[in-house]
Amino acid sequence: MSDTVQQIKDRLSIVDVVSQYVKLERSGQNLRARCPFHAERTPSFFVSPERGTYHCFGCNVGGDIFSFVQQVEGLDFKGALKVLAEKAGVEIVYAREEKQDKDERDRLFELLEAATIFYSSRLSDQARKYLHERGLNDATIQTFRLGLAGGEWSEVSDSLKIKKFTDREILEAGVAKKNERGGLTDKFRNRIIFPIADPAGRVVGFSGRIFGENASPEAPKYLNSPETPLFHKSRILYGFDKAKLSMRKHNCAVLVEGQLDLLASHQAGWANTVAVSGTAFTVEHAALIRRITDNLVIALDPDPAGIKAAGRAARAALQGGLNVKVAKLPSGLDPADLILKEGKDVWSKAIREAKEIITFLLDVLAEHAKSTDNFRRSVESIVLPYLVDVSSPIARESHLREVAKRLGVSEHAVSEALAKVPKAPPTTLDVEREQSDSKRLTDRATHAYAILLWQRSLPDAQLDVSAYERDLEASVGTEALQELEALSEQEREKLRFTAEQMYGRSPTLNSRARSLLEVLLKERLSRELSQATDALRKAEGEGDEDHVAIHMKSTELLTQKIAELHKKG
């Protein structure tokens, strides 16, 4: 495994990898960009080609190509390894002991892959005909690996047991549930199966649409995998693994409600389409999209439930830092039926003519308002909360002007009303960001240590690193240096970037570093003098002549050292 990791690093630079996700610009020896992990207007995300690392000073994340892909794609290490190995053209080779010692997650991934193969092999002519009638062609059916769960009680469970998967693993993967007799009953029966993959393309769960003569009329139309160690509905978007490249290319994502809507949209040429899987659109979903693009078009079903869902999705997307538009679908058809009955050009027109969320809401409310006063109250109660969620001050100001114009009131009046609207509670992402911000290290000792870390990492350091380290220890003390050396690698990498950004290849680095050490030494000696003086006073008060003599000598020596430093300065 270590050989594979090194081969990938040899073939892919940090710039090769990061530049596929964000636009990098030169900043001294480094490159910088707007961080893909949090909303920001001023770039605080830096990449060091020399060290093969990145760090964001806004949200305090950093690492190498593997941690970057893990973070940006929402993967574990093995998922990032798979993605990077494919980019580098490197075959993943596992050592014999690694093959024998697979962890539980690996087993679940293998189980779900086996279940996917089982379901797809069972796709009947009748099910295929139904999918064709819904407008899907064989290429789409094959690409998205659609399958069929029959009416038997435990056919997929029995198949997995033959492959040596245990009952516990089958239950944990969400493929089956325990029955009253203590055996296993398949979770999905009489359903067309849509495999759901993580960003690396590994199957993590399923969605099943009711199908067949034997299906119970009381069964829900769609059934999704339960929450499992691999499948978290609030963090997984159906089709995201296949939409990533198109989202990046078009700098936009399209959100639809169901699997068939997504498949029809992809088939119609909108490969940047994603869908939620059995849950509402969340801030975590927004964060997943924002790793690739800032722009989202919401195209949910045009019925009342779909319009409400679009509104909830829009708020979550705005809170996640996305620019949000809403597509108004004609004819009251959902995306799949619209594409099937009226053609892909009508669908494309709806996406291209999507309106900013605030404009869309104003248009809908104006259309249904019974009076001017009714319109005003609706705008105040419905539109202003969305306006609060808009993260860009410029966009918010623009929308505020539009609201004032529509209502025929002053911008000041709208601003006053807006100030009274409560903000949404902070998300988990916001809390984590605030916690990381509170840990920033800014004192002089840390600054001097940052220079040491940076110079250590260079093959052609400007300073005599050994001499500088000795002088730093003399300036801050052995204990303080040990505390700095105990910082986490992430904090240390942040400090390297800090020093590199501040000094670059500055010809005055040596003199500036020395001046900093002198200041630190003066501060340390002054602290020690203060402590010695306090100890002297205490000894004098207690009449302890022996300690008076010791502390007197210490104060004299420290005073002399400080005076010598001031002469040098």
TrEMBL record:
GO molecular function: DNA binding; DNA-directed RNA polymerase activity; zinc ion binding
Keywords per UniProt: Coiled coil, DNA replication, DNA-binding, DNA-directed RNA polymerase, Magnesium, Metal-binding, Nucleotidyltransferase, Primosome, Transcription, Transferase, Zinc, Zinc-finger
GO BP terms, alphabetized: DNA replication, synthesis of primer
Entry-linked Pfam families: DNAG_N (PF08275), Toprim_2 (PF13155), Zn_ribbon_DnaG (PF01807)
CC cofactor: Zn(2+)
HAMAP family reported in the protein's UniProt record: DNA_primase_DnaG
Oligomeric and partner information: Monomer. Interacts with DnaB.
Family to which the UniProt record says this protein belongs: Belongs to the DnaG primase family.
NCBIfam families to which the protein is assigned, alphabetical: dnaG
PANTHER family: DNA PRIMASE
Protein's name according to its UniProt entry: DNA primase
Species of provenance: Candidatus Kaiserbacteria bacterium RIFCSPLOWO2_01_FULL_54_13
Source taxonomy: Bacteria, Candidatus Kaiseribacteriota
